[in-house]
Write a structure and sequence with these properties.
By secondary structure, the protein is mainly α. The protein has two domains: 331 residues, no CATH class; 76 residues, no CATH class. It contains 19 helices and five strands. A three-stranded antiparallel β-sheet has the order 1-2-3. Helix 3 packs across helix 4, helix 6 runs parallel beside helix 19 and helix 7 runs parallel beside helix 9. The C terminus is likely disordered.
Length: 483
């Protein structure tokens, strides 16, 4: 009877957290004034394929637009492919049935993404049944506290590629943990983990690398009793690699030139004493010295022309920038500090001098000032902002501290170090990718910060398990997470 009572109690706790999560998400996305994230001119990379456009004159950056229209004039033949299409297609179907065949209500994206997000949370809850009740409660409470704020949830009602990565990351991490920690790994775990990682790989070219980093989890068998056959794991690996390849190769070649142009001319050269000398290290024509201080979206620069973007990408691509950083570690460090400065701020889009640009959460009809952010359920983000905002070195120490705490507090379970190694590598890759770009650092670090928040939650759950889990259950349970 004691076992039945304990199981029932844990089930009740799980359902309570599910209710809290759904309530927090529903309030932000569907109760007026509804929240979203303003278009930064990237939404058409997804909507252009289906001829969706703003219903009125778009207010980029400042306000959201919840009503979009289907029209031939909105067709843009972008080559981008993303798993965000997996959310848009059912959202358009629901919209056609319940709203209109002509006008698209962006909240249907919120419905679909919320379903995916909730499913990932339920899988997390099921995996936590293998740990002590105090650790499970700490993990669930921490997850809700860090993910259900207005920092992340409004992005569920958007056309952003980053949202697909955000909702895929939770089940991907759960699946990786089960692959590495369980003594017996059933086939369904491999299939679900592969599906989550393929979704992550297909989300956006920058995030596809995170899925590739996770591939070793399928191959570290370590003589466990039950593990799926090689052919199945090979198929999962091939699917993840193919997803990443599709996403990366769907990006127009000229976009690489835009990113490296901004990094070099907007971020690096303005801060050196002799820009011409550094420019001479590259294959870029000397005449480009006139564009120091400009970024890829500045007016009257050559790379507004697509052919010039392609030429610039050949002169100075991501590999050339990486080599440049290796030759000049002080410049690489300064670049890292610039990105960490923007990433430490509260949902910054980009920073120009002392001016911090953000993407608003509200529609213009609410009457709120441009770029207004919601702070609903933001006690954790606000606490972080108070400590690290505008302090890149403090932010770096916070990152290192969170990762170190997870490593030090992690239970002595077979496979745990491998799991932490993969997650740490994902953090490193996510931060390194931003170094290739010169603008929008804060926005591009959203997934990095989301992953870091999840690591912080894990460290807290590890601490709770050490303090109360072992005390309640006696000796350390080295097999709990593998059961």
């Amino acid at each position: 009877m004691g076992g039945v009572s304990s199981t029932a109690r844990r089930t009740a706790i799980d359902w309570s957290f599910r209710g809290i999560l759904i309530g927090l998400v529903t309030f932000q996305l569907f109760v007026p004034p509804v929240l979203s994230v303003a278009d930064n001119n990237d939404f058409q990379k997804l909507t252009g394929r289906w001829c969706l456009g703003h219903s009125a004159q778009p207010v980029l950056f400042d306000y959201t637009d919840m009503r979009w229209t289907f029209s031939p004039k909105n067709c843009v033949p972008w080559t981008f492919r993303s798993s965000a299409e997996l959310a848009l297609v059912p959202a358009m179907g629901l919209n056609r049935v319940f709203t209109s065949p002509v006008v698209f209500d962006l909240r249907w994206m919120g419905v679909v993404y919320t379903t995916f997000f909730f499913a990932g949370f339920v899988w997390l809850q099921r995996s936590l049944r293998a740990v002590s009740p105090p650790a499970s409660v700490a993990a669930q409470a921490g997850f809700v506290a860090v993910t259900c704020s207005a920092v992340y949830i409004p992005s569920l009602s958007t056309f952003s590629f980053d949202t697909a990565a955000l909702v895929a990351l939770v089940p991907a991490l759960v699946g990786i943990a089960l692959l590495l920690l369980r003594a017996e790994v059933p086939t369904r775990t491999v299939l679900l983990t592969a599906a989550a990682l393929v979704t992550l790989a297909l989300s956006k070219n920058q995030h596809s690398l995170l899925a590739l980093v996770a591939i070793p989890a399928f191959w570290l068998r370590r003589d466990r009793r039950r593990f799926p056959p090689v052919w199945m794991r090979a198929c999962a690996t091939a699917a993840i690699v193919a997803g990443a390849g599709i996403t990366i190769h769907s990006v127009p070649a000229g976009f690489q030139g835009q990113a490296t142009f901004s990094a070099l001319f907007y971020r690096i050269l303005p801060g050196v004493s002799n820009p011409a000398a550094y420019l001479a290290e590259t294959r870029i024509p000397p005449s480009y010295i006139a564009f120091v201080g400009k970024h890829a979206f500045s007016p009257d620069i050559p790379i507004t022309d697509f052919d010039e973007q392609l030429r610039f990408a050949r002169w100075f691509g991501p590999s050339d920038l990486a080599a440049f950083f290796l030759r000049h570690p002080k410049i690489a460090w300064r670049m890292l500090m610039i990105h960490l400065d923007e990433g430490s701020l509260d949902r910054v889009r980009m920073k120009t001098g002392a001016v911090v640009h953000r993407l608003g959460n509200y529609e213009r009809s609410t009457g709120k000032p441009p770029q207004t952010l919601s702070h609903f359920f933001c006690f954790w983000p606000d606490l972080k902002h108070h400590v690290i905002a505008g302090r890149p070195l403090v932010y770096l120490l916070y990152i290192l501290g969170v990762v170190a705490a997870a490593w030090m507090l992690a239970p002595d379970v077979s496979g745990m170090r491998l799991l932490l190694g993969i997650v740490t590598a994902m953090l490193v890759v996510s931060l390194a990718v931003v170094m290739v770009d010169g603008v929008d650092s804060g926005r591009h670090l959203m997934i990095f910060n989301f992953l870091l928040d999840l690591v912080a939650v894990s460290a807290a759950a590890f601490a709770v398990d050490r303090r109360w889990g072992e005390k309640r259950h006696g000796e350390p349970r080295k097999s709990d997470a593998a059961s």
